[in-house]
Design brief:
This is Mos1 transposase HTH domain-containing protein. With about 80 residues, the protein is mainly alpha-helical. The protein has four helices and no strands. It has a domain of about 45 residues: Orthogonal Bundle (Arc Repressor Mutant, subunit A), CATH 1.10.10.
């Protein structure tokens, strides 16, 4: 099962006013080893308590994918200048 689908199930448990222990028990019973861990459930409950409504990944800062230049991938030695 996809991690986004598990997030929806965690949100369902949150909206049903179950605590994290009940949510973990329910997910383990139905999905076994593929269920998310305790810390993941706690983290998402905290997000929902803060008012988050969507279950998508948050935007992340960092190097954009467009910064990768095909020439540097072919020959990484060319990407560094030597003194």
């Amino acid at each position: 099962m996809d991690k986004k689908e598990f997030r929806v199930l965690i949100k369902h448990c949150f909206l049903m006013e179950e605590n994290t222990v009940e949510a973990k028990r329910w997910l383990d019973k139905r999905y076994g080893d593929s269920a998310p861990g305790k810390s993941t459930i706690i983290d998402w409950y905290a997000e929902f308590k803060r008012g988050r409504t969507n279950t998508d990944d948050a935007e992340r800062s960092g190097c954009p994918k467009s910064a990768v230049v095909p020439e540097n991938i072919k020959n990484p030695q060319n990407s560094f200048e030597r003194p």
